[in-house]
Specification:
The protein is α/β, with parallel strands linked by helices. It has a single domain, classed as Nucleoside phosphorylase domain (Rossmann fold). It is 28% helix and 30% strand. Strands 9-14-12-10-15 form a 5-stranded mixed barrel, surrounded by 4 helices.
Length: 292
């Protein structure tokens, strides 16, 4: 999709704002959001990023959406917590687009568009036994069965899309759709020594991630089958709850997306991190070293 036509094609009558013509849920206006946005799921994880700020110009919180904007190593940066799941990403990405590229008082798109660089710093579970816990992984693609994606334009069919459809048809899974990050940003992160692979974005924590708690749960052995998927050298490496939605909506709005995950568990081996806070700190430190 042409990002220059995205904002202009939105229906101004559907825009919701809060007091002061701020984004309805994020409670932000344009100048309060930097061109580089780091997203985290947990609002409390922002506390681990705060020591990296040389200056803090804004701190705001509304529900699970917590925002800090300031400077890190001479760069203006926004850190935003989205909460868990693609439904929250739907709110966050739409409202970041409105804040960045609309005059919310006049309900008109700005003459000059901003293309945000949005990088998720999150946690995840590995699906491949050779991916040890406490390692960092960059998503080269993300796939999801979430119905959210059917409400937005989808990219043309490619080789991975075809391979995923053949795979889901074989096991009678819901349709798996692939979405992609910005290659330049992702490759910089991979070049720093991080792992890489396709991320499965689940629409929930229990059943959608193969946790069979209740009798009669569906999709038994789902994660085993996802981990066995191959398309050339590509494989599904990890599972989390936001990346596919970030990649999809980011591409719709013309923003540059990337996702880095700290692997705090391995679903294949049953191992979990002995010190997850230390691993998340390394995720933040190494990602900031690459980005700034």
């Amino acid at each position: 999709m042409n990002p220059n036509s995205t904002s202009a094609s939105l229906d101004p009558t559907q825009i919701m704002t809060g007091p002061g013509f701020r984004a309805y849920h994020l409670d932000l206006i344009g100048e309060e959001v930097a061109d580089t946005v780091l997203t985290v799921g947990d609002p409390d994880r922002i506390d681990q990023l705060l020591p990296h700020f040389a200056t803090v110009d804004l701190e705001r919180r509304k529900r699970e959406f917590r925002t800090v904007t300031g400077t890190i190593r001479g760069h203006k940066v926004t850190v935003l917590s989205t909460g868990m799941g693609s439904d929250n990403v739907d709110i966050a990405l739409n409202e970041l687009e409105l804040v960045a590229n609309w005059d919310l008082e006049k309900r008109l798109p700005n003459r000059l568009r901003r293309s945000l660089q949005i990088i998720r710093l999150g946690t995840s579970g590995a699906l491949q036994e050779d991916l040890g816990i406490d390692r960092l992984l960059v998503s080269t693609a993300a796939c999801s069965m979430d119905s959210l994606h059917h409400f937005y334009p989808q990219a043309a069919t490619d080789g991975l899309n075809v391979a995923l459809q053949e795979f889901t048809n074989r096991y009678r899974f819901p349709k798996l759709l692939p979405f992609y990050p910005d290659k330049t940003v992702s490759q910089r992160l991979i070049s720093s020594g991080m792992e890489q692979g396709i991320t499965y974005t689940a629409c929930g924590f229990y059943g959608p991630q193969g946790r069979k708690i209740w009798e009669g749960a569906t999709q038994d052995q789902m994660l085993d089958r996802l981990s066995a998927f191959r398309s050339g050298e590509d494989r599904i490496t990890n599972v989390e709850m936001e990346t596919a939605a970030l990649f999809h909506l980011g591409s719709v709005f013309g923003h540059r997306m990337a996702s880095v995950s700290a692997l705090l568990a391995n679903r294949a081996s049953g191992q979990t991190s002995a010190d997850p806070e230390k691993t998340v700190k390394r995720l933040i430190d190494q990602s900031l070293d690459v980005l700034f």
